[in-house]
């Protein structure tokens, strides 16, 4: 049985994953203003950088799921 993460820990994991993905993509030329398409930058990344982007996405998804589970668990118990 997996131990549940608290909401702050899950939020930290989600933010770390987003920062990791953004840092790798931004260091290779991608930015929010749309100078280069995200797909173009991702295709030009070396294999290790692609793995780091995917790890960041997985961490973000895991953190989001754990955060929502922690919040819904608190509401179900009436702690909110």
What's the gist of this structure?
The chain is mainly α. It is 74% helix and 0% strand. Helix 1 runs antiparallel to helix 3.
Key attributes of the depicted protein:
80 residues, mainly alpha, elongated
The secondary-structure class comes to mainly alpha
Tell me the radius of gyration: 16 Å
Low-pLDDT regions: none
Biggest beta sheet summary: none
Helix/strand order, N-terminal first:
HHH
Shape annotation: elongated
Task: Give the beta-strand count.
Answer: 0
- Helical amount: over 70%
Terminus-to-terminus distance: 25 Å
Structure description:
With 80 residues, the chain is an all-alpha fold. The radius of gyration is 16 Å and the shape is elongated.
SSE layout and pairing:
Elements: H1 7-27, H2 38-44, H3 47-77
Helix pairs in contact: 1-3
């Amino acid at each position: 049985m997996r131990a549940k993460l608290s909401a702050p820990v899950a939020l930290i994991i989600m933010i770390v994953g987003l920062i990791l993905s953004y840092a790798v993509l931004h260091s290779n030329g991608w930015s929010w203003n749309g100078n280069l398409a995200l797909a173009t930058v991702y295709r030009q990344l070396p294999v290790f950088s692609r793995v780091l982007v995917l790890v960041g996405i997985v961490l973000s998804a895991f953190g989001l799921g754990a955060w929502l589970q922690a919040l819904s668990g608190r509401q179900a118990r009436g702690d909110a």
